[in-house]
Amino acid sequence: MKKMVVMMGVHDERSKRRIIAAVANFHGVTSITMDSKDGKLTVIGDFDSSKLLTKLEKEWTNAEMATFGPYDPKKEAETAAAAAEKKRMEEKERERLEVSRGNHSFNGPTPTHHQICLCNHDPYNGCIIS
């Protein structure tokens, strides 16, 4: 099985439906995913990648292949799990920083105490500490 990612630059739902319909009719395609936010089309299956890309480029001139290679479901699951773990750790770190920043901005900066000693070595006047 192969996996091909194509950057489409399409962000509206109508175009997304048209692209998915065009790819779904292609022989050998088993899975199609379209991310509208990024304009990224992911196609998985045993298909002729050059014919599929040619068809997409013919109808959508901004179609551009981003990646192409073998598809391994186990490797994809491991990659997804690692990405989820990384995201969870980043979220935890971000929350920790927000809490520490939040406490600092809510309570104000930690006060620093300065002591000033004015001594004039006069036996009748002691040190003044303020």
UniProtKB/TrEMBL annotation:
<dbReference type="InterPro" id="IPR036163">
    <property type="entry name" value="HMA_dom_sf"/>
</dbReference>
<feature type="region of interest" description="Disordered">
    <location>
        <begin position="71"/>
        <end position="107"/>
    </location>
</feature>
<keyword id="KW-0636">Prenylation</keyword>
<dbReference type="Pfam" id="PF00403">
    <property type="entry name" value="HMA"/>
</dbReference>
<dbReference type="GO" id="GO:0046872">
    <property type="term" value="F:metal ion binding"/>
</dbReference>
<protein>
    <submittedName>
        <fullName>Heavy metal-associated isoprenylated plant protein 15-like</fullName>
    </submittedName>
</protein>
<keyword id="KW-0488">Methylation</keyword>
<feature type="domain" description="HMA">
    <location>
        <begin position="1"/>
        <end position="68"/>
    </location>
</feature>
<comment type="similarity">
    <text>Belongs to the HIPP family.</text>
</comment>
<feature type="compositionally biased region" description="Basic and acidic residues">
    <location>
        <begin position="72"/>
        <end position="101"/>
    </location>
</feature>
<dbReference type="InterPro" id="IPR006121">
    <property type="entry name" value="HMA_dom"/>
</dbReference>
<keyword id="KW-0449">Lipoprotein</keyword>
<keyword id="KW-0479">Metal-binding</keyword>
<dbReference type="InterPro" id="IPR051863">
    <property type="entry name" value="HIPP"/>
</dbReference>
